[in-house]
């Protein structure tokens, strides 16, 4: 990538001058805020914007923050259960919609599974809040798990379906020709082959659940505060270096989840 | 017959969860929007259109209905800011998507990974980063001051522009990905052919590339517009208390204001706006399919 090359006239008709500059500016815009948080998290000064010196102290105090650890525990529990439920439902729906013969109302079923993607989240959040209050469900944890399971389903479904679409079903047919029962075919052939899709789908729904703010903020309240809701309450109290350290830790964790997903998706293509 | 029952049992859980946790709550919202609100949250099962009329009219001291633009203003602001955000995203996304599509295969994968990576980072954290940048004595203000570009400014935070920066930042990857997909599908020989026929680059862009990428552009536009219309976080953190959007208004009615039926009717209104755009897109998509 030669900077000077950008200014040389390019005779290629497919080249548009200036698009590269927009690209560079865009990626700067995308990563600048993230870098600012990371940089400030190491500032030893209590006043965030005035740089004093390098320090790890905010990471130490973040890791000892009871409220933070509690909300992390809530988020992990909710995400774990929601992912499990959403993935099982998504796998069975994807198998029917991609492999089932003469599925009735396939288009409608696809729409039903993807319903959460079409609604703005706030609509779902207040709707399910009213439902829970009508049913008289008290447990904050149960409410969160139910709500998260619902909106995670399409995120688990899409990668699994994509995997099934991209995969030759000759192998499954060969297994059936060799008298494997449907269950054995699924366990020995289909499941291992769609495993990357299931992994990607469940990771995606896990992250979507961990990240959710709008629904969790409205639905929780039964003493169950999730991580994003807790961070939001910190932001409302004011900017602090500990908040930057917490945010950086969350970004590192996201990166650790995102990269293997990307690698698996890349390899299986 | 056996096959059919497999299909049935496989789809049953999805149908159960979606009808109980999505469709049923939406029906309840619809129902509550036509009921009378209860002062302590909840609603009374008495039919009334009061909550819908509240969007336009407020009762004054003598119980006369007076036209009130307060909520209309919020609705107009929501539509305007969401539309403007989607337009800005489009203007930036097209060159970026095109730029990525012109790279080598390895570079393409890397850049696409970089586009999607922020999505894995918590949304609250991403919006918070802009609080850090735009706040008083934040990165932006102090660097502007350092270069002597500004004297004394009020604050870069808590206004419509700050909110839009946050919205563009959060949702722009949703625009880049579908546009990139449609540019990738484009047959580059068409561009070469246009150039051989002495079409200028601008002309080729306008007459060949943009029309062929229309499905991706429309999809990206809707993908950005829909979450913007219901956004809650950016107005709360970057817009301050003064600049509310529809999503915040709805949230407030179920929270502090405790006016469920009014909140429900606003929710129905938001749903109608979103459905309008979704149907517009579905209509376009079906027309395109007919053509091809």
From TrEMBL, chain A:
Subcellular location: Cell inner membrane; Cell membrane
Chief location category: membrane
Record flagged with keyword Repeat: no
Keywords for the protein's UniProt record, in alphabetical order: Cell inner membrane, Cell membrane, Membrane, Transmembrane, Transmembrane helix, Transport
Record membrane topology: Multi-pass membrane protein
Transmembrane spans: 21-42, 74-97, 117-135, 141-160, 189-208, 245-265
GO CC list: plasma membrane
InterPro entries documented for this protein: Bact_Polyamine_Transport (IPR051789), MetI-like (IPR000515), MetI-like_sf (IPR035906)
GO annotation terms (biological process): transmembrane transport
PANTHER family registered for this protein in UniProt: PUTRESCINE TRANSPORT SYSTEM PERMEASE PROTEIN POTI (PTHR43848), SPERMIDINE_PUTRESCINE TRANSPORT SYSTEM PERMEASE PROTEIN POTC (PTHR43848:SF5)
Protein purpose: Required for the activity of the bacterial periplasmic transport system of putrescine and spermidine.
Similarity comment: Belongs to the binding-protein-dependent transport system permease family. CysTW subfamily.
Designated name of the protein: Spermidine/putrescine transport system permease protein PotC
Organism of provenance: Colwellia psychrerythraea (strain 34H / ATCC BAA-681)
Top-level taxonomy: Bacteria, Pseudomonadati, Pseudomonadota, Gammaproteobacteria, Alteromonadales
Gene assigned in the entry: potC
Automatic annotation (TrEMBL), chain B:
GO cellular component: plasma membrane
GO biological process assignments: transmembrane transport
CDD domains attached to this UniProt entry: TM_PBP2
Membrane-topology descriptor: Multi-pass membrane protein
Intracellular or extracellular location(s): Cell membrane
Keyword check for DNA-binding: no
SUPFAM superfamilies according to UniProt: MetI-like
UniProt-listed PROSITE patterns: ABC_TM1
Record flagged with keyword Nucleotide-binding: no
Residue ranges constituting the ABC transmembrane type-1 domain according to the UniProt record: 75-281
Keywords per UniProt: Cell membrane, Membrane, Transmembrane, Transmembrane helix, Transport
Membrane-spanning ranges: 12-34, 74-98, 110-133, 161-181, 216-240, 260-280
Coiled-coil regions listed: none
Family in the record: Belongs to the binding-protein-dependent transport system permease family. CysTW subfamily.
Full protein name: Spermidine/putrescine ABC transporter, permease protein PotB
UniProt organism field: Colwellia psychrerythraea (strain 34H / ATCC BAA-681)
């Amino acid at each position: 990538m030669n900077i000077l090359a950008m200014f040389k006239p390019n005779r290629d008709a497919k080249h548009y001058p200036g698009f590269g500059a927009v690209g560079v500016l865009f990626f700067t815009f995308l990563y600048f805020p993230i870098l600012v948080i990371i940089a400030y998290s190491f500032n030893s000064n209590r006043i965030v914007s005035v740089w004093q010196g390098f320090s790890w102290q905010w990471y130490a105090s973040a890791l000892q923050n009871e409220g933070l650890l509690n909300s992390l525990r809530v988020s992990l529990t909710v995400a774990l259960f929601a992912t499990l439920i959403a993935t099982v439902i998504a796998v069975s729906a994807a198998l029917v919609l991609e492999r089932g013969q003469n599925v009735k109302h396939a288009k409608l079923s696809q729409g039903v599974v993807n319903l959460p993607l079409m609604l703005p989240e706030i609509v779902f959040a207040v709707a399910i809040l009213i439902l829970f209050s009508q049913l008289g469900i008290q447990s904050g944890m149960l409410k969160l798990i139910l709500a998260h399971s619902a909106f995670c389903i399409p995120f688990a479904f899409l990668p699994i379906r994509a995997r099934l679409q991209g995969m030759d079903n000759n192998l499954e047919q060969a297994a059936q020709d060799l008298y494997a029962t449907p269950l054995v075919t699924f366990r020995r052939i289909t499941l291992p082959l769609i495993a990357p899709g299931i992994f990607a789908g469940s990771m995606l729904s896990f992250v979507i659940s961990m990240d959710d703010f709008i629904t969790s903020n409205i639905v929780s309240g039964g003493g169950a505060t999730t991580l994003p809701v807790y961070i939001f309450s910190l932001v409302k109290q004011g900017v602090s270096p500990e908040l930057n350290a917490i945010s950086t830790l969350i970004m590192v964790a996201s990166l650790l989840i995102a990269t293997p997903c990307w690698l698996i998706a890349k390899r299986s293509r | 017959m056996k096959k059919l029952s497999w299909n049935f049992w496989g789809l049953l859980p999805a149908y159960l969860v979606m009808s109980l946790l999505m469709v049923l709550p939406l029906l309840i919202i619809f129902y509550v929007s036509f009921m009378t609100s209860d002062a302590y949250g909840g609603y009374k099962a008495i039919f009334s259109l009061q909550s819908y009329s509240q969007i336009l009219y407020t009762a004054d001291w003598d119980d006369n209905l007076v036209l009130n633009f307060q909520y209309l203003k919020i609705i107009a602001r929501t539509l305007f800011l969401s539309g403007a955000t989607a337009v800005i995203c489009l203007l930036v996304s097209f060159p970026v998507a095109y730029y990525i599509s012109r790279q080598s295969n390895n570079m393409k994968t890397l850049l696409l990974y970089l586009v999607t990576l922020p999505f894995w980072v918590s949304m609250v954290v991403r919006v918070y980063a802009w609080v850090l940048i735009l706040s008083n004595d934040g990165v932006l203000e102090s660097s502007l001051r350092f270069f002597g570009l500004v004297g004394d400014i009020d604050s870069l935070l808590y206004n419509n522009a700050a909110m839009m920066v946050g919205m563009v930042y959060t949702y722009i990857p949703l625009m880049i990905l579908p546009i990139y997909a449609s540019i990738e599908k484009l047959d580059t020989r068409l561009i070469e052919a246009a150039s051989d026929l002495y079409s200028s680059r601008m002309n080729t862009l306008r007459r060949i590339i943009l029309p062929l990428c229309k499905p991706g552009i429309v999809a990206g536009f809707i993908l950005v517009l829909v979450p913007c219309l219901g956004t809650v976080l950016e107005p709360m953190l970057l817009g301050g208390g003064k600049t509310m959007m529809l999503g915040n208004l709805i949230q407030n009615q179920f929270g502090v204001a405790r006016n469920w039926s009014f909140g429900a009717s606003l929710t129905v209104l938001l749903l109608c706006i979103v459905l309008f755009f979704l149907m517009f897109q579905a209509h376009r998509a079906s027309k395109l399919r007919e053509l091809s």
